[in-house]
Design a protein that fits this description.
The structure is a single chain. The protein has six helices and ten strands; from the N terminus they run βαβαβββββαβαβαβα. The protein has 184 residues and is of the alpha/beta class.
Length: 184
């Protein structure tokens, strides 16, 4: 399975729409950990689904993954081999849903699945350690540049931990995502 994993926070919703709403994801499963209050999450997902050419939905506990765009409702890990499943995890984290938890869970999956991982705008450092683990496992990893970030916290921390990351504009990230989806 092809997996596109995205972590974002402050400023993320509009950037996610820019990257994905008009992109046919074909044979790719997109999983997004967007820091957002549960009070707003459903309305964000509903609006995103209305605007997108793909199905966008909240990721449920024990859900078998398909070629859709999923938004994590809670802290989530991924598991499985040929069929992948999302499981909610009741763990303490400073940010919810935790990008690091999602990314860390995908490290083992990198052995049998094609993965692209992206850190977008947001304050704090969530996702930076998980992105580094994915990079060490051979996953292509991207981070947003300071110019396009609403808050340059999460991508900056990812770049600080991994000097090999090249910060990219949203247009460059969209091109990389398109290339990933189109490749066999």
């Amino acid at each position: 399975m092809k997996l596109l994993l995205i972590g974002s926070s402050t400023g993320g919703p509009n950037q996610l729409k820019f990257l994905l709403k008009d992109l046919h994801i074909k044979n790719t499963c997109v999983i997004i950990a967007q820091h957002m209050s549960s009070n707003y999450l459903s309305s964000f997902v509903n609006k995103f689904n209305e605007e997108s050419v793909n199905e966008v939905r909240l990721l449920e506990d024990k859900e078998l993954l398909a070629n859709k765009i999923y938004i994590c409702a809670k802290n989530t890990i991924l598991t499985g081999n040929l069929s992948l499943m999302a499981l909610w995890q009741d763990v303490q984290s400073s940010f919810k849903p935790s990008v690091d938890l999602l990314f860390h869970s995908a490290v083992e999956l990198a052995k049998t699945n094609k993965i692209l991982a992206v850190i977008l705008t947001g304050m704090g450092d969530d996702g930076a350690k998980g992105l580094l683990e994915l990079y060490k496992a051979g996953v292509k990893c991207l981070c947003e540049n300071e110019t396009d970030s609403v808050v340059y916290g999460m991508p900056k921390r990812a770049k600080d931990l991994n000097p090999n990351l090249r910060p990219m504009s949203l247009k460059e990230i969209k091109s990389e995502i398109t290339r990933f989806i189109e490749e066999n």
